[in-house]
Amino acid sequence: MSRRNILTAAALAAAFSTVAPIAAPVAIAAPSAHFTLHVTPQYPLDDAAVARIRDGMTTDQVRGLIGAPWNTVRFDNTHTTAWDYEYRDGWGYDAVFSVVFDDTGIVVGRISVRRDA
Amino acid sequence: MRTAPRVALAAAFACGTAHAADGTTQIYGTLNVDVESVAATGATPAGALPAGALGQVPTGIDVPRRVRVTSNSSNLGFRGGERLGPDLSVFFQVESAVNVDGGGTNIASRNTAVGMETAWGSWRLGQWDTPYKTLSGAVDPMYFTGIAYSGALIGTPGFGVGPTTIGAPATSGDGRTFAAGANASFERRQGNSIQYWSPGLAGFAARFAYSVDENRSSRSPAVTQVDPRIFSGSIEYERGAVYLAYAYEEHSDYFGLDALVPAAQATALTGSGASSRDRGEKLVARVKIGGTQVGLLAERLRYAKDGVAAGAFSRYRRDAAAVTLLQKVGAAGTLRALVGKAASGHCERSGGEACDTAGLGARQYSLGYSQTLSRRTDLYAFYTRVANDARASYQFANSAGLGAAPGSTSTGFLLGMRHVF
């Protein structure tokens, strides 16, 4: 084994050693939670937070779980309103998570759209 | 908030939308298809380049207007993961391009990797966009794909070079040299990669990627000795309405200059003593105020080849920049605009002989409007124009089948639809 290969192996070993369980209570799925800047108040929105939202919830329940949206859009054709939240998803993409409410304020859909090419 | 109940809730409410660590696998995709009218006209008349002038030989060949249906980065993917502990989870993604316009796909042709998320950041192994490429997405206003996006001038030195997906240096059509546009691209989805992404800390986050030297030469005296590898890294900072980022990418022994110089000067796979180091630097800035987002992209590319014959091209450096705008219009409309410029740059020849980059600049304008019909469906209309100086050959980033002869101006109008599932 050449010296270069030994160095490579050492670097890999160091990288893999970081998988040891860490006690600190840190977000698991979205380490870049600091990037969720348009959530007001600033909730650290990540995949786990997004996963709490489900069909049938009310606007108050959604606001209580993940805060107010940074943007809302009314869709007249489908009689729905989307609440948008910017975040970084668990695979590392910047994305917009939208919660779709019907006109009675009940969640009828959710979609996460990545900024990607 | 960051305690055990969240884990339990995540597991309980996992239906519908998949998440990296919840144990479910999701099928997802984007279908982004447009009908577009494109042409490239005004090519510089055929003729020879003066001695010492860098550029492709003018052909005078225009591309008359035609209509295309184009599937702009449409994709179908699978993603999921597994939670292994309170601060440890596995994630995976297999994403494939889908040619909506003509059929066909190539499995795992897009971002595909398996990795692990820890409190100390995440790492992944596979094929993924380099951190350098990814940064442009923060400000690109044209969905970061298609003929109108910033990739016409950013991430390419011109010379017909476009975005690439590859894990090792490509070779020329005849297999004798490293003359291939893919080797000069700084808009890379790079295979054979290890990536590490730091956790966010006080608004900062860093990403590093290394594409290993799988194609290092054997010790045979008959082959050109190369050790091709790519490093790419970025640092991002976001606070309030402001986002700033810097990326650096270095290609060793990829011979990007071979795609720019005359074929006779390209590095042979056998018997050459040449080596190369190509570097890209990119600055990205973004401000969001109300319904307005303004972005800036600035880039410097440097190509360097050593061990070349006297008089051969050995260096090329060029700067490019773009300003982008996203403006909300009414409840569901967005105005999109982009203005970019690539400078002609500076070159050197071995032995200090004169080198000329005159006419290698270009400009790009894109203007568009999109209407959101739901959070999953957009309709859009874009116009774009990529205008080359006399010897430059920048082209639409998504250029399949069109191309641009030196000096030509590419224009396109399109109507498209983007649906996410």
Secondary-structure-derived class of chain B: mainly beta
Number of strands of chain B: 20
**Which class best fits the helix and strand makeup of chain A?**
alpha+beta
The average pLDDT value of chain A, as a whole number, equals: 72
Q: What number of domains of chain B? A: 1
- Report the uncertain regions of chain A: 10-42
Number of distinct helices of chain A? 3
Largest interface: A-B, 55 and 67 residues
The main β sheet of chain A shows up as: 4 strands, antiparallel
Q: Termini separation of chain B (Å)?
A: 30 Å
Helix percent of chain A reads 10-25%
List keywords for this structure.
heterodimer, A: 117 residues, alpha+beta, Beta-lactamase Inhibitory Protein, Chain:B, domain 1, 4-stranded antiparallel β-sheet, 26% strand, globular, B: 421 residues, mainly beta, Porin, 2 helices, 20 strands, disordered N terminus
Describe the protein.
The complex is a heterodimer of chains A (117) and B (421). Chain A has helices at residues 3-17, 47-50, 59-66, and strands at residues 71-75, 80-88, 94-102, 107-114. Chain A has a four-stranded antiparallel β-sheet, with no helix packed on it. Helices cover 23% and strands 26% of the residues of chain A. Chain A has three helices and four strands, in the order H-H-H-E-E-E-E. Chain A is an alpha+beta fold. Chain B is mainly beta and 421 residues long. In chain B, strand 14 and strand 15 (313-329) form a beta hairpin. In chain B, strands 1-3-4-6-7-9-10-11-12-13-14-15-16-18-19-20 form a 16-stranded antiparallel barrel. Chain B has one domain (32-420): Porin (Beta Barrel), CATH 2.40.160. Classes of the chains: A alpha+beta (117), B mainly beta (421). Chains A and B meet through helix 2, strand 1, strand 2, strand 3 and strand 4 of A and helix 1, strand 3, strand 4, strand 6 and strand 7 of B.
Produce a short descriptive summary:
The complex is a heterodimer of chains A (117) and B (421). Chain A has 117 residues and is an alpha+beta fold.
